[in-house]
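All the exercises in this workshop are built on plain-text protein records. A learned vocabulary of local backbone shapes supplies the integers on the structure line. Once this layout is familiar, the rest of the handout is easier to follow. An example says more than a description, so a record of this kind follows:
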Amino acid sequence: MSQPKVNPLTKMTLLVGGTLVSMGDAVVMPLQPAIAKNFAEVPNVKLLVNYVLVFNALFIAIGATIVGLLIERFSKKKLLIAAFALYGVAGTSGLYLNNIYLLILSRAFIGLSIAGIMTILFTFVADYFEGEARSRFMGFINGFSLWASVAFLYVVAPLAAKSWHHPFAMYGVAFLLIPLAIISLQDKKPISNPAPNEPTVASTTKPNDAPLPTSYPKALVILVYAISFVAVTLVSLTFIKLPDIIVARFSTDIYYIVTGFAVFLASGAASSMFLYTPIKQRLHYQLIYALVFIVIGSGFIIINQANTYPVFLIGVGLAGLGYGLNGTNTSLWIMSLVPLPLVGRFMGIFTSLLFFAIFVSPNITSVALKFMDVSTAFLVYGIIMLVLAIGLLLHGVVLSKKAKAAA
């Protein structure tokens, strides 16, 4: 099927819109010490500051599935514009809020807006791009978002030194995307000419009297969700405990911590933007998942063993490579399995699972840390990743043999 030409302004809107997802956490991560200091007199302030960071993930998980259903009935474009507006209003409220409970409440609205932005952007990618072009752009949008996170970290750190309120102004970029979305995005899928042997793919905008396609491999879709959920739950140990290892082993300097996160995110961006497409040309989705677990598991084991900061960053970088491949691989595999009119619904479920995994990961880790220290947790998680990789490889071999026998 020939890939219709996509307006550069449309591409820019999708790319910059994707950065709002990463900005949601990148702005807040370096602010936690300053927020804790500002609200030091509030009971249980440490717990409340943790909620400032992760509360949005819970509401992304709640909202994404709902958004996935809404975009089957209402205009994706109008819903995305509403999500941009909510993001800007809720995010910039941190400029003037001086109550930690209201700040946490604002994070809930940030989460709902990100649920809308992430789910709808994925669906627009499915609308505008096909085949290899879709794989390439999905990797690019995920990678661009992660590169943006690196930039956000280094912008937020000096701003936070002046006032923890100042970085919240960055959320205002969402308002600039509203006119871009109005101008560049269309609800209907662009028409393309199918190749002689390919079926025509219908628009995601279905007529009111047209039946909604429901046929898809349910067991395989559930397996894809389960694999990705486990991967994100385990790799989230990096977000939660990376600062603890850096402070304990190397330095209390905030730029050591920022650089650790930056290497993780930059590696994820590189793998998503530059490595995923050539890897996908050679490996099936399931084998890419095995690669994801091998790379993250190896990185975690290096983190456990590292006695110098450069070696430590190598382990962090490997974990980031796997993190970047995981999101892109899941998105594209789901898109390839379900009917196009249902992509929004299933990407909403994926977004919910992704952020629910991020939300529950601290609770799982807190239980694990009752039996081991942080360094050992990285080792154990790494070994679990490698065992899962072996299981995926063996399952892939079995499927391959079955396919050859049936041929």
In short: The first helix runs from residue 8 to 26. DSSP finds 14 helices and no strands in the chain. Residues 190-209 have pLDDT under 50 and may be disordered. The chain has two domains: 1-184, 217-337+369-407.
